[in-house]
Amino acid sequence: WGFGFESAKLYKETYFSITTETLFYEAGDYISEKTFKPFQHLHPFVLIGRPGVLKYLQSLGFKTFADYWDESYDDIEDNSLRMQKVLGVIKTLINKTNEEDFYDNWNLKLKSVNGKIESYQNNNFEINEKEIAKHPFEQEVLQREFYDDGSVGDW
């Protein structure tokens, strides 16, 4: 179920993605393929992850969607409050689908959003190489735990 196995149909039939990153409670700057799937499908997304993950993406040269909805949840350190704020953003977006002029307004916004995302696909943006160098790739260390009932947990 890795990258490339998702269906383009789901992206075409929805207005935005809810993307859950690998890290939410744990410390780290790790961004997985989950964040880049919506980019590949020209699909706006609300990102559920560590505080500062949107700012980290921006520091690498990516543009996110603060022009279209409230991304202030990215600044919230408290996990419960951050999740509540994200859920509020998602509810707001879902409720907008009930507004009479939603479809026309969303299509105009989506053209602008897609212009941003298409620029990534066409390599028409600059990656901040200095920022990337601050976060070198490190292989994850498998942490294996053996439980009394005979089961094994990998972290």
Placed side by side, the strands forming the largest sheet appear as 1-2
Report how far apart the termini are: 19 Å
**Proportion of residues in β-strands:** 5-15%
Query: Count of helical segments?
Result: 6
The mean pLDDT is: 77
Structural class comes to mainly alpha
What is the helix content?
40-55%
| Overall strand count | 4
The radius of gyration over CA amounts to: 18 Å
Tell me about the biggest sheet?
Answer: 2 strands, parallel
Unreliable spans? none
Write the layout of secondary structure elements.
Blueprint: H1 8-12, E1 17-20, H2 33-40, E2 45-48, H3 53-59, H4 79-96, H5 102-121, H6 129-133, E3 144-146, E4 152-154
Parallel strand pairs: 1-2
Antiparallel strand pairs: 3-4
Describe this entry's structure for a reader.
It is a single chain. The protein is mainly alpha-helical. It has six helices and four strands; from the N terminus they run αβαβααααββ. It has a two-stranded parallel ribbon with strand order 1-2. A two-stranded antiparallel ribbon has the order 3-4. The longest helix has 20 residues. 14% of the residues are buried. The model has no long low-confidence stretch (mean pLDDT 77).
What's the gist of this structure?
The chain has 155 residues and is mostly helical. It has helices spanning 8-12, 33-40, 53-59, 79-96, 102-121, 129-133; strands at residues 17-20, 45-48, 144-146, 152-154.
